[in-house]
Amino acid sequence: KFPFKQRSGNQTADFTSCVTNQIPSHLECEQLQKFMNWTEKVPKGMHKVLIRKDVSQDPNKEENYPGLVEDFVELECHKAIGMSDWCGTCLHSAKKGQPGYCGEDAATTEETGRFEREKPRPSAWGGWGFCDPLCRQLGYRGFRFNKPTLNEIMRKVSSHEDC
User: Which end of the chain is more exposed for a tag (fewer CB within 10 A), N or C?
Assistant: First the structure.
Protein backbone atom coordinates (compact mmCIF):
# COMPACT_ATOMS: atom_id res chain seq x y z
CA LYS A 1 0.00 0.00 0.00
CA PHE A 2 1.34 3.37 -0.97
CA PRO A 3 2.41 5.63 0.51
CA PHE A 4 3.96 4.00 3.59
CA LYS A 5 6.19 5.29 6.36
CA GLN A 6 9.57 3.73 7.18
CA ARG A 7 11.64 4.54 10.22
CA SER A 8 15.42 4.37 9.97
CA GLY A 9 17.21 5.35 13.17
CA ASN A 10 15.56 8.55 14.33
CA GLN A 11 14.38 9.53 10.82
CA THR A 12 10.98 8.68 9.30
CA ALA A 13 10.34 8.93 5.56
CA ASP A 14 7.34 8.41 3.28
CA PHE A 15 7.71 6.10 0.28
CA THR A 16 5.39 6.03 -2.72
CA SER A 17 6.82 2.94 -4.42
CA CYS A 18 8.68 -0.24 -3.59
CA VAL A 19 12.06 0.36 -1.95
CA THR A 20 15.42 -1.38 -2.13
CA ASN A 21 16.74 -0.41 1.28
CA GLN A 22 17.23 -3.02 3.98
CA ILE A 23 14.28 -5.26 4.85
CA PRO A 24 12.94 -4.51 8.35
CA SER A 25 14.62 -6.95 10.71
CA HIS A 26 15.26 -7.67 14.36
CA LEU A 27 18.63 -6.92 15.96
CA GLU A 28 18.80 -10.60 16.94
CA CYS A 29 18.98 -11.55 13.24
CA GLU A 30 22.24 -9.64 12.87
CA GLN A 31 23.55 -11.07 16.15
CA LEU A 32 22.78 -14.62 14.98
CA GLN A 33 24.51 -13.96 11.66
CA LYS A 34 27.67 -12.81 13.44
CA PHE A 35 27.57 -15.64 16.00
CA MET A 36 27.10 -18.33 13.32
CA ASN A 37 29.66 -16.60 11.05
CA TRP A 38 27.20 -16.54 8.15
CA THR A 39 27.97 -14.31 5.17
CA GLU A 40 24.24 -13.53 4.82
CA LYS A 41 21.41 -13.08 7.35
CA VAL A 42 19.82 -16.27 6.09
CA PRO A 43 22.00 -19.14 4.83
CA LYS A 44 21.85 -20.37 1.26
CA GLY A 45 18.94 -22.76 0.63
CA MET A 46 16.65 -21.09 3.19
CA HIS A 47 14.26 -18.16 2.81
CA LYS A 48 13.86 -17.34 6.51
CA VAL A 49 15.13 -18.28 9.95
CA LEU A 50 12.98 -18.27 13.09
CA ILE A 51 14.52 -17.32 16.41
CA ARG A 52 12.61 -18.33 19.53
CA LYS A 53 13.52 -15.79 22.20
CA ASP A 54 12.88 -16.14 25.95
CA VAL A 55 11.68 -12.73 27.19
CA SER A 56 10.69 -13.84 30.70
CA GLN A 57 13.63 -11.94 32.24
CA ASP A 58 13.11 -8.76 30.21
CA PRO A 59 12.41 -5.99 32.76
CA ASN A 60 10.39 -4.12 30.10
CA LYS A 61 8.46 -7.18 28.88
CA GLU A 62 5.05 -5.50 29.24
CA GLU A 63 6.17 -2.43 27.24
CA ASN A 64 8.21 -4.29 24.61
CA TYR A 65 5.73 -7.11 24.04
CA PRO A 66 2.23 -5.82 24.89
CA GLY A 67 -0.39 -8.56 25.10
CA LEU A 68 2.18 -11.37 25.14
CA VAL A 69 0.83 -14.26 27.20
CA GLU A 70 3.81 -16.64 27.02
CA ASP A 71 7.47 -16.02 27.83
CA PHE A 72 8.68 -16.67 24.28
CA VAL A 73 8.45 -14.66 21.06
CA GLU A 74 9.28 -15.83 17.55
CA LEU A 75 11.46 -13.47 15.56
CA GLU A 76 11.58 -13.88 11.78
CA CYS A 77 14.76 -13.22 9.83
CA HIS A 78 14.03 -12.94 6.09
CA LYS A 79 16.31 -13.37 3.14
CA ALA A 80 16.18 -10.74 0.41
CA ILE A 81 14.93 -12.48 -2.72
CA GLY A 82 17.18 -11.55 -5.63
CA MET A 83 16.47 -8.05 -6.87
CA SER A 84 13.00 -7.87 -5.30
CA ASP A 85 12.05 -4.71 -3.50
CA TRP A 86 9.63 -4.43 -0.60
CA CYS A 87 6.85 -2.13 0.54
CA GLY A 88 4.35 -1.51 3.33
CA THR A 89 1.21 -3.67 3.33
CA CYS A 90 -2.32 -3.59 4.64
CA LEU A 91 -2.94 -5.19 8.02
CA HIS A 92 -6.15 -7.19 8.23
CA SER A 93 -6.22 -6.62 12.00
CA ALA A 94 -5.97 -2.81 11.67
CA LYS A 95 -9.04 -0.81 12.52
CA LYS A 96 -10.15 2.50 11.02
CA GLY A 97 -7.60 5.20 11.91
CA GLN A 98 -4.78 2.71 12.65
CA PRO A 99 -1.58 2.15 10.60
CA GLY A 100 -2.13 -0.30 7.74
CA TYR A 101 -5.92 0.08 7.59
CA CYS A 102 -7.20 -0.62 4.05
CA GLY A 103 -10.95 -1.10 4.47
CA GLU A 104 -13.47 0.22 1.97
CA ASP A 105 -13.76 3.37 4.09
CA ALA A 106 -9.99 3.96 4.36
CA ALA A 107 -9.00 7.62 4.45
CA THR A 108 -8.28 9.51 1.26
CA THR A 109 -5.66 12.22 0.79
CA GLU A 110 -8.37 14.83 1.49
CA GLU A 111 -8.69 13.48 5.06
CA THR A 112 -5.16 14.54 5.99
CA GLY A 113 -5.07 13.53 9.68
CA ARG A 114 -6.63 10.08 9.31
CA PHE A 115 -4.80 9.44 6.01
CA GLU A 116 -1.50 10.07 7.80
CA ARG A 117 -2.47 7.77 10.70
CA GLU A 118 -3.55 4.94 8.36
CA LYS A 119 -0.32 4.83 6.34
CA PRO A 120 1.38 1.45 6.85
CA ARG A 121 4.40 1.53 9.14
CA PRO A 122 6.45 -1.59 8.37
CA SER A 123 8.63 -3.00 11.12
CA ALA A 124 10.49 -6.19 11.93
CA TRP A 125 7.19 -7.44 13.39
CA GLY A 126 5.36 -7.21 10.07
CA GLY A 127 3.36 -4.85 7.91
CA TRP A 128 5.59 -5.35 4.87
CA GLY A 129 5.97 -7.72 1.93
CA PHE A 130 8.14 -8.32 -1.10
CA CYS A 131 7.20 -6.61 -4.35
CA ASP A 132 6.85 -8.77 -7.42
CA PRO A 133 10.19 -8.89 -9.31
CA LEU A 134 8.16 -8.29 -12.48
CA CYS A 135 7.59 -4.70 -11.32
CA ARG A 136 11.33 -4.02 -11.56
CA GLN A 137 11.65 -5.76 -14.93
CA LEU A 138 8.85 -3.67 -16.40
CA GLY A 139 10.25 -0.46 -14.97
CA TYR A 140 7.07 -0.13 -12.88
CA ARG A 141 4.93 0.16 -16.00
CA GLY A 142 1.26 -0.21 -15.19
CA PHE A 143 1.48 2.15 -12.22
CA ARG A 144 -0.30 5.47 -12.52
CA PHE A 145 -0.51 8.04 -9.77
CA ASN A 146 1.33 5.63 -7.40
CA LYS A 147 -1.47 3.07 -7.65
CA PRO A 148 -1.32 -0.20 -9.57
CA THR A 149 -3.62 -0.42 -12.55
CA LEU A 150 -4.85 -3.57 -14.19
CA ASN A 151 -3.20 -4.40 -17.49
CA GLU A 152 -4.88 -6.90 -19.78
CA ILE A 153 -3.09 -9.43 -21.96
CA MET A 154 -4.34 -11.90 -24.56
CA ARG A 155 -3.57 -15.51 -23.71
CA LYS A 156 -4.17 -18.41 -26.02
CA VAL A 157 -4.27 -21.83 -24.42
CA SER A 158 -4.49 -25.05 -26.38
CA SER A 159 -7.41 -27.35 -25.72
CA HIS A 160 -6.83 -30.45 -23.61
CA GLU A 161 -7.17 -32.60 -26.77
CA ASP A 162 -4.21 -30.82 -28.38
CA CYS A 163 -1.94 -31.33 -25.39
Answer: C
Is-contact 107 114, C-beta < 8 A? Answer: yes
3-class DSSP state for residue 147?
strand
By CB neighbour count within 10 A (0-12 exposed, 13-18 middle, 19+ buried), where does 162 fall?
A: exposed
* Single-letter residue type at 106: A
- DSSP H helical segments within the chain, as ranges? 27-36, 61-64, 112-118, 133-137
pTM of the model: 0.66
> Which amino acid is located at 128 in the chain?
W
User: Do residues 53 and 32 make contact, with C-beta atoms less than 8 angstroms apart?
Assistant: no
Give the SS3 label for residue 141.
coil
Distance (Å) of CA 95 to CA 2, 15, 90, 98, 101: 18, 22, 11, 6, 6
Task: Determine the straight-line distance between the first and last CA of the chain, rounded to whole angstroms.
Answer: 40
